[in-house]
Amino acid sequence: MEKEIEVNKNIIREDLEAYAKYLKVEKNCILCDKKNHETWAKYGSYTAVKCKNDDMIWINPQLSEEGLNKYYEDYIGMRFKDEIKTKQRKVQYQLDKEYIENWISSGRVLDVGCSGGFFLDALSDSFEKHGIEIDSKAVEYANKTYSFGKKVNSVRIEDVKYPEGYFDLVVMRGAIEHLPDPKTAVKKVSKILKKGGYFYIAATPNAASFCADLYREKWNMFHPVRHIFYFGADTISKLCAPFGLKLVGRHYPYEETPYANIESDQKEVLRAWELKMEGKFEKIGRSPSFWGNMMNLVLRKT
Ligand SMILES: [Zn+2]
Questions:
Q1: N or C: which end of the chain has fewer CB within 10 A?
Q2: What are phi and psi of 63, to 5 degrees?
Q3: If you measure from the C-alpha of residue 209 to the centroid of ligand 1, how many angstroms do you get, rounded to a whole number?
Q4: ω before 61 within 30° of 0 (cis)?
Q5: Which of 105-111's residues contact partners 24+ apart within 8 Å by CB, and which partners?
Q6: Residue 4's pLDDT is what?
Q7: What whole-number distance in Å separates Cα of residue 195 and Cα of residue 21?
Q8: How many angstroms separate the alpha carbon of residue 294 from the centre of ligand 1?
Q9: Three-state SS at 129
Q10: Distance, first Cα to last Cα, the chain
């Protein structure tokens, strides 16, 4: 049976309860390593918690590796196919490209979780382009479609074999929130980045936003299987600082994106806020796109 997936639109139409039996991995906060958190959101069997020390938000417990593998086995290729046909995404790639190229516009770049190579393709040709992606169908597509295609490989960031200081730019576009171990990933990013190089975290949900707090599990970026960790600029900053990565730029794309319907989005969010104030949270629908929902962050290796 084919299932319909609209993660970033209005509803989650997947049977996530089918994976709930794999909810086995309890985690302390990845920033302070403490167990001092409270429930932030609930969705069926899934719970998101928020650390009282530093506002880090994550799904707890999380799916075991077996559970995650099972989930992605069932859905692999879906997002990728969706990306091929989505024009909106292409416009967004262009905007995200323009933002990072204010800092750096040539050198060696690695896109972590590059899917079919679409964002690499959007980047200027003055870059030497490399990508990694675990969806083998997406890797195959990149291999045969682009001139940089043979530099796209199916490997996890933790396992890459690039030399230290090899890259001028490492990109994670819509990726860091999916990783079961973002700390190890960031450590590896820092290792393969050269001194003065940039780490670009783009198109990632901003959990420090107005909508995240208002809507919680009804926030359009909330997906308890795909999105495991929910960051804001401050929590990213804290995660990256121990590895010599310093936040130097931030941008919250909305108005200029193809996802904005400013007037109706405003109305909808205002109505949701009123309903919440009236104690009628159950009447609120899933959030629209809005100011602050997404963020693009630039970090520099010092
Ligand atoms: Zn904490």
A1: N
A2: -65, 145
A3: 18
A4: yes
A5: 106/168, 107/167, 107/168, 107/169, 107/197, 108/166, 108/167, 108/168, 108/169, 109/167, 109/168, 109/169, 109/170, 109/171, 110/162, 110/167, 110/169, 110/170, 110/171, 110/192, 111/171, 111/172, 111/173
A6: 40
A7: 44
A8: 22
A9: strand
A10: 50
CA dihedral 270, 273, 278, 280 (to 10 degrees): 110
User: DSSP 3-state assignment of 33?
Assistant: coil
CA atoms within 13 A on the CB side of 138: 27
Q: 20 C-alpha vs ligand 1 centroid, how far in Å?
A: 25
Q: pLDDT, tens digit, for every residue of 95-127?
A: 999 999 999 999 999 999 999 999 999 999 999
What is the token pair recorded at 60? Answer: 């707890």
State the distance from the centre of ligand 1 to the C-alpha of 55, rounded, in angstroms.
Answer: 7
Tell which residue, 106, 174, 156, 115, has the closest CA to residue 139. Answer: 115
**Side chain identity, residue 65:** E
pLDDT digits (tens, 9 = 90+) for 183-197: 999 999 999 999 999
- Asked whether 185 and 171 are in contact (CB, 8 A), the reply is no
Whether pTM exceeds 0.90: yes
Closest CA to 268 of 287, 253, 250, 251: 287
Q: Quick one: pLDDT at residue 11? A: 61
CATH of domain 77-301: 3.40.50.150
Give me ligand 1 centre to Cα 26, in Å.
14
> Tokens standing for 25?
């991995």
CA of 124 from ligand 1 middle (Å) equals 38
Q: Residues 6 or more apart from 38 whose CB is under 8 A from it?
A: 49, 50, 52
Question: Domain residue spans in the chain?
Answer: 77-301
**What pLDDT score does 294 carry?**
97
Per-residue confidence (pLDDT) for residue 8, from 0 to 100: 40
How close is the Cα of 264 to the center of ligand 1, in Å?
A: 36
